[in-house]
Amino acid sequence: xxxxxxxxxDEPTIRETVTLILEECGYTVIKARNGRAxxxxxRKGFKGIILMDILMPGLTxxxxxxxxxxxxxxxxxxxxxxxxxxxxxxxxxELEEHVFDYLTKPFCGEDLMRCVENAASVLVP
Length: 125
Description:
Elements: E1 4-8, H1 12-24, E2 28-32, H2 35-43, E3 48-52, H3 61-70, E4 77-83, H4 89-92, E5 99-104, H5 109-122
Parallel strand pairs: 1-2, 1-3, 3-4, 4-5
């Protein structure tokens, strides 16, 4: 059974592109346009892989991860950063242990699937 993936990105084009690729490969995809929408899905019980953008209006990706940790919502979930930044920078350095992988924009479908499949292989069914 394929895992669920949540794409958290403020860019509609990124959300739609990632959704098309993942759904074609059999994944169930939940789209969140920002950190607040991600937190709402987590509170509803989302478990799976999160592809998280860093730079978003309102809550950044790092702020969202901090909230997920504070609310103890990380169980059975892996976070992969989907970002234009090559490194976490000083704003996210302390959260490195909570990030499974980084996928740097622009990315190709093969890189996206490699990232998602690696994360899926680690999650307990």
